[in-house]
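#lab-general

N.A. 3:47 PM
ok so I finally got the sequence cleaned up, no stray characters, all 145 residues accounted for. can someone with queue access submit it? mine expired

B.Y. 3:52 PM
send it over

N.A. 3:53 PM
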Amino acid sequence: MQIGNNFWQNSQIENLKLRMVIERLKLREKQVIAHEMAHKTVGGPYTGAVHYTYTRGPDGRYYITGGEVTIDVSPEANPEETIKKMQIVRAAALAPADPSPQDIAVAQRATALEMKARLELAKRKYQELHKENLPISERKLNIEI
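B.Y. 4:20 PM
back already:
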């Protein structure tokens, strides 16, 4: 009887381990979907399709265990539009509760491009002021930072 009881206990332990693995896979799947949808929702037109990677669980079912969404970080035709776009891109990259190192890198790139666009805009405004040949006291500097 002792042998049968040990077999039953080992079987129960194995079943519990399998259920725990499955529950971890289900949790991971929910986390990945939420993470990628946060990018997609905030990024709107600047995001591509969501691509998932799957892992087969011990129950034979496939679970989402990874994912990615492309975010367009290319500058726009003019500094004003680039600034607006990069603010959205940065927000999209940092939208998930747990941004990945790749997400942070995209946000940093968007910030750098936004700063570059702001500098270009400031240069243009500076050049416009100097074209007018007005005394400095009469010039208005209107730079967004």
